[in-house]
Structure formats: structure tokens, C-alpha cells
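Take a protein:
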Amino acid sequence: MPMMTASASARREPYHGVTNERPLNPSEQTHWLTSGGNLRAVAIGYYNSLGGYTIGQVFPSYDLTQTQPSAAHFIDGTVVFKLLFAEYVPSRIQAPDPLAHAPRWFVQVPANSAAPPIEVRLLQVDVAVKDDHFSSTTGWVFATYAYDERLWPAEGNGWRRLTPIGMQWGNDPTVTGTAITTLQESWINPDMPPAFRDHVGRAGRLIGPVDNPRSSCLSCHSTAQVDMAQTGNVTGMFATQAIPPTACSTPMAWFRNLPSGPSGGTAFGRLPGGNCPVDVATTGLTSLDYSLQLQVGVISVFGFQNPNPCASHAQAHYAATNAMALRRNQEQLRQPPGREQQFLRELPAQSQRVQITRDGRLLREEIPPQHRR
């Protein structure tokens, strides 16, 4: 994701490109973590070509002034997945170790280039699919997987030792309580890895081990929006919070089904002064179609007003490419209009062709006489 930096002004982590995630809280992970301070979590996301197309519409140029948040309309069939890793500190883990044979990376602490690399291990994989069959609810289907040590050693590939935590395609807006209950728009796997079994969202909605239990996957992502009238004001650009405040009088505002279809998503609303109730009016807000990564990228540009660190390199590349295209156009324009024009394609001699054009339109290709057999 362009401009999705590790903090307000720092560059991405250099080894794997990860960014910070919500830290692991031992009080929420009592089955496997001992008490003490939080452990770091980092992640990196990947998009298929359909998702990449939409990102390219939002960030069409190295010139960040051309960024278009209103183009955030993900296409049916977009797939996003995110790898989340937890800081691995053996002395903080109660047996049996749920990450004993998990894939590991060594990463630099984001935003702290002076710190030595730390070991992190795969904990969670999130998947999101844009599916217009669900456009009347949220338009997205989310799934969360956790690393499952029970699959070792039968499964030799650590990246395949994943068991689903569950799936979610709506926020169950009619379920207003907090007690775990039967849901209609989520499925929770009863056989998830034991270490993470009790960590669920509000009323049992879907979350992963890293996520906040006051929320759910779709609930949190429904807040992906920006207020472009607040350029230069980071808090104002978010316009709300991703998680309901602890003492909020209207927490169910975070569990509405905000539709998303081919024309994009629905903005969440505002949390005036950071206090409930939520103002659900969307005037002046731009939905980013459930993409919190796009939100971070856009606010990096317009809120923090960070520069593009690759701008000079990109400018040189595009300048060279555009110069070549300009020379080709000038060659065509120098030919008299209305006459057949011949241009020799720059190919090896044995495969050269002459393009016969008229007024810039290709009529046919012919083999030059000297290469005819």
C-alpha cells in the first residue's frame, strides 16, 4: 500500500516491509502468555490484481497531489490477505507453546532503526474478499486464520499450518448485548487452536488473536473513511475511532451493516470530539470501502503530509518513458496527413515488419521486400 508508513513520518520496516499492529495484551491471552508488558505485533498485506487496480486509481502518480480518495471502489473479486506476526519471547510463553514451530522472521522495530532486529512468529492470517452477492450487507466476506501447532509435524510446510478462527459477512446489527450468543452473520470455528479459543469479539463476533475484543473484523473496517475538509488535521481526517470507546452510549453504531457495491462503500459517520453518540450523517466524508490500509495511506499524504520518499526516482523513470513516447508521436506528426506512412518496427531483421498507417491509424503490416522469401 503506497504511503502506509510504520508511524507518523517513519519509513516502512526495511527487511520485510511490515508495519505496526495492535500489540498482544497478556490479559487477553491468558492461555499462553504470562503477565507482563504487551508484546509487539507487526503485519504486511497483499492484494490481488483487482485490488491493485483500485489502489492504482487512488494513487495514480508519484505526484501525491493527484491522490484520489474518492476512487476507492474495490471491484467484485478483490482479494486481500494480511500476515500478522507476534514478537516471540520464549520466557513469556506458557507451555504448550502455540508458536513453537511457526514460520519466523527477523524484523527491525518499526520507527526505531537503532534497535536490533527482533524475532517474530506467524500468529494470524486475515483474508478479505469483495463479493457483490453481499452488497446489501457489507459487500465483503472476512476470514481469520490462526497458526495451529497441532498440525506439526504432519504438515511440513509451516505456512500451511493454519486453522480458521471463523468467517464474517455482516455485523449482526440486531444482536445488541455483549454476552456470547448465536449469530447469523458470523461463523466461529469450535475447533480453533486451544490457545486462542476464548478470544472473540463483542457477543462472539469474529476477531483474531491480535484484535480488540470490543469490536469485530467488519466493525473495525467499517470506519475506513476520510474527511478531506480536514487536510492537515490527522484526528479530524479520521473523523471517528476504529473501536467503540469504553463508556460509549451508542456502541451499536459500530455494528451497522454499511453497504458496499460496485460504486463503493458507505462512510461511517463522525464521533464529535471523540465522544459518543456517533453522528451517522455522512456529508463531507469519503468512504474507503472497508480498507484501513488505504485510510492510513491517504492520511499519511493529506493528514501528516508526508512526502513520497521515492518521488525523485519515479520522476526520472517517468520522464525517460514519456520522452520516448513523445519522440514516437513527433515522428508520426511530421508525416503529411492523409498519406500512407511507413514505420519500421524495431525488431530483429528476420522478423521486421513495416506498419502501413493513415492519419495515425494502423492499416496493415507488411514484410519488407529485402526480408521476403
Notes: DSSP finds five helices and 13 strands in the chain. Residues 338-351 have pLDDT under 50 and may be disordered. Residues 2 and 297 are 6 Å apart (CA to CA).
